[in-house]
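User: I've been trying to design a sequence by hand for this structure and keep getting stuck. Would you show me what you'd pick, starting by listing the structure so we're on the same page?

Assistant: Good idea, let's start from the same input. This is the structure you sent:
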């Protein structure tokens, strides 16, 4: 981490990476966003699992897409 100018982590849990972050942004949980299941629970299945949003994000939590879109807009890189 000494060679990095800044470490930014987007996560919904305090991971080992998040402990080193200069900026830690809260990610939405799986229940708070529409997404495809891409973790080990899918295994070697020949299909994908789509999960619909079950609850609204709490507090000021935004999806990664919303965060990066807003950053791009503010940096003039739309």
């Amino acid at each position: 981490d000494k060679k990095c100018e800044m470490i930014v982590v987007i996560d919904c849990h305090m991971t080992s990476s998040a402990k080193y972050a200069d900026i830690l942004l809260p990610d939405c949980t799986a229940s708070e966003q529409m997404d495809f299941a891409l973790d080990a629970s899918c295994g070697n299945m020949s299909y994908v699992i789509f999960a619909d949003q079950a609850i609204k994000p709490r507090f000021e939590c935004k999806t990664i897409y919303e965060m990066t879109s807003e950053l791009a807009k503010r940096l003039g890189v739309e």
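That's my pick for every position. To get oriented when you compare it with your attempt: The chain has a mean pLDDT of 80. Residues 9 and 24 are 5 Å apart (CA to CA).
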